[in-house]
Amino acid sequence: MLERTLRERLPGAVGAAEEEIAAAEARLGVTLSDELKVLYRVTRVDYDDDFEEADRAGAAVGCELSGLDHLYAVDGAVRHPSWDLSATRAVNRAPDAAVQGLAGSSGWIVFGSNGGDEFAVDMTPGPGGYLGQVILVDHEQSLGADLVADSLTDFVLGRLRDERGDRRGDQLPAAARVGAGHLESIQAAAHAALEVLSIEAWNGAPLSLAPVAGLPCLRTLTAWPGTLADPLEVAGLTGLEFLELGAQEWRILLDAGAVPRTLKAAAIKVRDQDHLPVVALANEILALWDRPSIIQTHLEGDLGPAA
What we know:
It contains eight helices and eleven strands. The strands form two sheets. Strands 1, 2, 3, 4, 5 and 6 form a six-stranded antiparallel sheet that branches. The protein is of the alpha/beta class. It has two domains: 167 residues, SMI1/KNR4-like; 114 residues. α1 runs parallel beside α3 and α7 runs parallel beside α8.
């Protein structure tokens, strides 16, 4: 079906040789799906040699199509690598998820785009997915991908799915926000599968972390300055990997020797204050893990008269 459809839409197109397809597999380190092989046997998609023909191939498939030599796997290491973004995302752990909640995979083979996001054939699907399904990797997200079609054939024929992320209404979210415009209490966010808790700025009384103490999956806490009733309650979060607090809250933890040693990264939330004391505070945190200090350079000189 796929080959017939493509040849009808692309009469006279020049496809790739079997040697070229084998070379692409060797470069990627994976065996391409049968449908991807069919696609490139019909059209090799070479923008350097024939831009108009390559553009016509993209229109026939339904996206900005990549050439065989430009296929690549989604690299999780370059997908929003900063901790402050990635640590506040939750992995999709649904037992029937069609797409794994990964940052990237050697089995996510990108074959095209919509001008910003990437379309990939998924060779490592989730338990509820299909080998060779088509997924959309959103450039604004750091984890997971959206199921677009059950196969490349369905994608080309326009039989698309509309399943964006994990929207199961019967499950509490693994990443929760508390504060203005979000949940009104930490109790409302607390459940055994909670991974990420973000406490936003708000006008209410400072909050206690007692409802989430000891939760087995909680790995990230971010809290705006002044939102915690007792920063020392952080010690009850035994599996933290990322912690973002205000300078005063960090000072309390450091003075009490209560900084969680499970941390893999940390951040200091700064609001309307001198940054130099924050650098000193950061160096104290770094010293707990024998990490190099932030270097400070003091410059003196005459900048001339004020403008």
